[in-house]
Amino acid sequence: MAFNGADALTRVLIDNGIDTCFSNPGTTEMHLVAALTRDAGIANHLCLFEGVATGAADGYARMTGRPAATLLHLGPGLANGLANLHNARKAATPVLNIVGEHAQAHIAHDAPLTADIEGLARPVSKAVATLRMTGEIAQATRSMLSEIQSGEKGVGTLIVPNDVAWADAVPGNLPPVEPPQPAAPDPVAIDAAAEALKAPGALLILGSPHITRRMQELVFAIATATGARLMGEAATARLSRGGGLPLLPRIPFQIDMALDALKDTSTAVLAGARAPVAFFAYPERPSELLPTDCRRVTLCPPQGAVEAALEALADRLGVSLGPLEAPELPALPEGTITPEALGAAVANALPEGAIVADESVTNGAALQPACAAAPAHDWINNRGGSIGYSLPLALGCAAACPDRPVFAIVGDGSASYTLQALWTMARAGMNVTVIVLSNRRYRILTNEMSKIGAGTPDENSDPLMSLDNPPIDWTDLARGFGVPGERAETAEALHTAILAALAAPGPHLIEAIM
Amino acid sequence: MAFNGADALTRVLIDNGIDTCFSNPGTTEMHLVAALTRDAGIANHLCLFEGVATGAADGYARMTGRPAATLLHLGPGLANGLANLHNARKAATPVLNIVGEHAQAHIAHDAPLTADIEGLARPVSKAVATLRMTGEIAQATRSMLSEIQSGEKGVGTLIVPNDVAWADAVPGNLPPVEPPQPAAPDPVAIDAAAEALKAPGALLILGSPHITRRMQELVFAIATATGARLMGEAATARLSRGGGLPLLPRIPFQIDMALDALKDTSTAVLAGARAPVAFFAYPERPSELLPTDCRRVTLCPPQGAVEAALEALADRLGVSLGPLEAPELPALPEGTITPEALGAAVANALPEGAIVADESVTNGAALQPACAAAPAHDWINNRGGSIGYSLPLALGCAAACPDRPVFAIVGDGSASYTLQALWTMARAGMNVTVIVLSNRRYRILTNEMSKIGAGTPDENSDPLMSLDNPPIDWTDLARGFGVPGERAETAEALHTAILAALAAPGPHLIEAIM
Fold first, then answer.
1. Do the two domains A5-166 and A187-317 of this chain adopt the same fold?
2. Which residues of chain B make contact with A120, given a CB cutoff of 8 A?
């Protein structure tokens, strides 16, 4: 077959190191399917729902630093992927969506699947482009790859009309994109931060799309040297931790706990972090969590060279990195699976190199703290708040890091959104351990209802927050998608089940009855 | 608690006969949950995924003619519901989305869940509005209810900031909406249609959001009297049929079959139908399915008074309605579940008053024709082409018509999109029989790839169309969501399983191995 537009697009992807595509194609993407699968250089993962594909692309890029592609079918296919693209956008993850469109002459006829694809893409995308002719494929794709990997990274949506995909084309042969490096640290900002951290009531807030171990070694030393307090943002796209690093405390999700934790802050130094804001607005509570008279000093913006800025700050302060006090593993838990027991069971089983996609919601309070004592691992948080992210994210992390054990720890409400991810994990034999926290309730709503001043759940409203009628059987759901499932009713059983899952290849699901 | 904005909105819904809400709420919707559940006049159905809620609202309105509400959580919640709202839009179904938004002062702080909700809503909505103060709730909601039920009906998205929901309010006390009746038939159009139908090669194409039995009695008589051919649109939002009515032939989905079926048409008379267009564009094939020199005569637009126009046309032609020849039931099928056997098994089991949400895709060729011989029933087609519609639609139909048996007949690829609908069916004990057509393949892509000129599936591309590794076990998935499941490997077993499902209350799932 002649070299066509789909081939030309694929060539640009390969030239730019895009080696993975998460797909749910349709008729309008068949030329793209042919081109993307013809070359052995691209791994193609079929997903049964588009929200799985977009979340997986997010996870892939969080672990590799490079975008993966998604292949989506027209406007409705993109629409199904939007919620996890929202999460990717808020995490500043680069993702390249390739969305098929009807042949251009067909669009005006308003066929059943015709939709405003650009309009659907815009709210979640940093860049949106519709290809009009094969001659612009190379430049347009390259520009988009550049844009989504520059400054604050983001989502790019490339819309490919079918006639552009099927028309004869010639290869573009442009050089690969070289995303610009973040600007060098600003000496004025370094000086200001160094000064600010010495003030009584100073707080250093660390954030970044990827908080590295080195960043933490630096901030722990800086905090010790200056006497400043230290906190991480409420959610981090990727946090490398464990293996002897102390726990990086987080700004709490819960509004009153967050206000209390920050109330004595006179000066906040922002290292790759934004000034913290409330997750939701509550009556009689502020949106900004720092006190109104708190001074804000930006060491480095989120898209800056955070690690280099911290190196310069440590240097400026004459800080030397000393030994750090490693946290202690909690004892092996027994009995009921409380949030504390969950944390202890996971922390005692987490192996070196693990990746944890954390969507533990109301049962997660003790999870991240307990796991600080585990061997070195990566922790993934949701920065966009749209639930149903962790199963797809875990899939993408496993595709990115096939030799590392991956965990998704997820509330039962959240897991119900994108459970189709289990099938793709099973298909590829990915080493993912899914722990579903089964409390048979949207517990967060029960907690939030009174906080937001809407009364307390009663016999009328409770049915919109409870998941116990009928109870969802997660072992059945897992088996349906080809994943072995087990139920754990005690903390001992949970710990044992995690070890068993790690010992056997392929994905496993554990339903932890909370 | 004081009467607040959420109460004021709920009052408008009740005053306008909105009695059903399909919900997946979050923190920003808690005041709406309290208000919507406080009054016993609104049935609230919790859905585990927003695409279930929006598809259910579509199904509800197709059967009742009245909109249901959805309650969705912020931009990402709406995003998850967009694909089925696309289908509702294409079916001209009135749906009212109520979407929570952050308190207005909070939006500028760009919290995790902040998103461009209006931007997300616009591509699928006929009307979008964001409430700014409690004083405008009654008028804005009433206007939206009017707009989505006037002319070509559609989707309305009402965005409710949390501070508008929680602020003190007074009831609006506006009179209920009275949607305008469609314009009376146009005598000039009646005359033109009557004349056109007498031409050799004339074709009457029938369409409407609801093709009633009366419309079919009229068009069969008109076709007989004039000698014109008769076809229905490729997909109908709701078609009342069976019980002695002859089969209304449909314009085929498959491009070459459609072109062949229409090639001798000299004059097309459009009764509530649009001039047919190809589902997709194909190389060397036209987008418009009627011959270029075919004359198009509009008897009545889709949003018009189709039945009245047909009455007037029959009158103008002096047609009298005679007895119609009832189709014959196919014999009870045996052996392998072929598409023909599927049709025969369902047709022989379909009870009086059944509602069938048809998403049978490539296995459905014989299904609708065979069921023409069944007792009177309603048939639901997808007019938007976004798959994952039939399980939510069936849920909505069951909520609308609790005393009627509802079927969802759905390919395994399509069923994987919104399988969470099973849980809500189980919770409410709805009488839905789900038949999953398990061919373990996106068969339509295998068929379409060569038609669209992208080659044939080979060892590289086939993994993006095949669902056999691992095989999905639909009985496990059903059980996981609390629905009894059974596998049928022969046509006899399928027929028996359908009868058993109908004999027992509550939902059932049958996995038909094709």
1. yes
2. 82, 120, 123
Task: Give the closest residue to B222 by CA, choosing from B319, B326, B307.
Answer: B319
Assign domain A187-317 one CATH number from 3.40.50.1220, 3.90.580.10, 2.40.37.20, 2.60.120.1440: 3.40.50.1220
Task: Given the cut 0.95, state whether the ipTM is greater than it.
Answer: yes
Query: Whose CA is closest to A465, among B455, B349, B30?
Result: B30
Tell me what the mean pLDDT of segment B408-433 comes to. 98
The nearest CA of chain B is from the CA of A78 a distance in Å of 9
Domain ranges of chain B: 5-166, 187-317, 339-513
* B309 min Cα distance to partner chain A (Å): 25
Express each pLDDT in B361-384 by its tens digit: 989 999 999 999 999 999 999 999
What is the C-alpha radius of gyration for chain A, rounded to an integer number of angstroms?
24
CATH topology assigned to domain A5-166: Rossmann fold (3.40.50)
H helix or E strand, kind and range, residue B70? strand B69-72
CA B6 vs. chain centroid, Å, equals 29
Residue of B4, B22, B33, B508 to mutate, testing the A interface (most A Cβ within 10 Å of its Cβ)? B33
Does the distance separating the beta carbons of B479 and A111 come in below 8 Å?
A: no
Q: pLDDT digits over B312-332, tens only?
A: 999 999 999 989 999 999 999
Give the CA angle between residues A87, A93, A98 to the nearest 5°.
90
Q: Select from B90, B124, B472 the Cβ nearest to the Cβ of A112.
A: B90
Q: Do B109 and A277 touch (CB under 8 A)?
A: yes
Q: Average pLDDT of B202-224?
A: 97
Residue B40 has a pLDDT of: 75
Q: Which CATH number does B339-513 carry?
A: 3.40.50.970
Contact between chains at B476 and A479 (C-beta distance less than 8 A)? yes
CB B239 within 8 A of CB B248: yes
